[in-house]
Amino acid sequence: MRFRRLLIIFFAIWWGWPALVAAQPAEVSLADYDRLLRAAHAAAQRGDLLDVQVLAGELATIKQVRMPDGQLAHVDQSWLTTALASSAPDLPAIAARLGALIDALAPPGVVSPEVALRQWQAVYNEPPFNRAGEGWLTRFLNWLFDLLDQLTPNPPDVPAPDGPPANPVVFTPLVWTILGIAAALIVGLLFFWVRGVRRTLRAPVKTPVADGDDPVTYSEAQRLAAEARRVGDRRSAVRYLYLAALLWLDEQGLLGYERSLTNREHLHRLQNQPPVRDLLAPVVATFDAVWYGFQPIDDQAFARYEQQVAAVQSLTKQPAGTLS
Fold it and tell me: Cα Rg for the chain, rounded, in angstroms?
């Protein structure tokens, strides 16, 4: 009889353990929670209801967030589930509330008091606060102006007498020497200032496009993607490869690339070319997840992404009749 009771208790615990585990609140770090909020916010801003619903499912499982100091903060995303349950979810309102939640999180760039003190000391030890760090020319000019101020004190406020002054000002040789040095310094400063102005007014030299600007050709986008891949910045490489695919289709006359259009709008423009649209769709999905959702991408996933972009280029190289 006792063995039978133990067996019943064992099976009860065995069958009830998954429900007990599921009832425990899910815990994530502040960085993971912030990443999910930003991904959902970006999806809501671009009107992607499907991505918002998927990310809302992940957010709904989070009940606790571990803060950087080790404390646990309780969170509740039931409002998001309720908002998405309606027949026509208000994505702009959802994006606004997600943005408010992101703003309420502690900014990652806040420095500690010790770091702030070191930064303040570094500024305080530089001129004009620290005179020891000034150059010899600055110290000489300060001394010269102080000396001139002492030699020419402000006269007292007295009524001017009638007629010519009785005692005209007499300049001593020392005063003339100081004035000559000051005039030479002023002429030298004017010379350097005029030369700098002339250099500024020269015709500007055209410089190549900076790496941070968006490429305008397929080859330029491929070059920027290779450079980002070489330095280990796979997130930027994903973006440049995505732009390379769009610019390639634009150069082939298959898709008019416009920066003002969203990714989904570009796909919608290819509705009359299903083969190209089907190949570009996974490229768009990976780009959205990595660039807007801040999802990491390993070497194997990045290699598959490169193959997807190459497949778009390979298919569109075929005769136009095979793309219908």
Answer: 35
Contact criterion met (CB below 8 Å) for 63 and 74: yes
Q: Distance between CA atoms of 44 and 54, rounded to whole angstroms?
A: 12
Max CA-CA distance within the chain? 134
Shortest CA distance to 29 belongs to which of 97, 105, 80, 81? 105
Q: What is the mean pLDDT of residues 68-78?
A: 83
Provide the angle, in degrees to the nearest 10, between the axes of the packed helices 30-45 and 49-60.
Answer: 160
Using DSSP bridges, classify how beta strands 26-29 and 62-66 pair: parallel, antiparallel or unpaired: parallel
Length in residues, the chain: 324
With vertex at residue 145, the alpha carbon angle to CA 140 and CA 146, rounded to the nearest 5 degrees, is 95
pTM beyond 0.90, yes or no? no
Residue 83: both structure tokens together: 């908002």
- Mean confidence (pLDDT) of the chain: 75
Q: Tell me how far apart the alpha carbons of residues 265 and 37 are, in angstroms, rounded to a whole number.
A: 24
| CB-CB contact of 99 with 42 (8 Å) | no
Cα–Cα distance for residue pair 154/298, rounded to 1 Å: 75
Cα three-residue angle 82-88-93, rounded to 5 degrees = 65
**How many degrees, rounded to 5, is the angle at CA 272 between CA 266 and CA 273?**
80
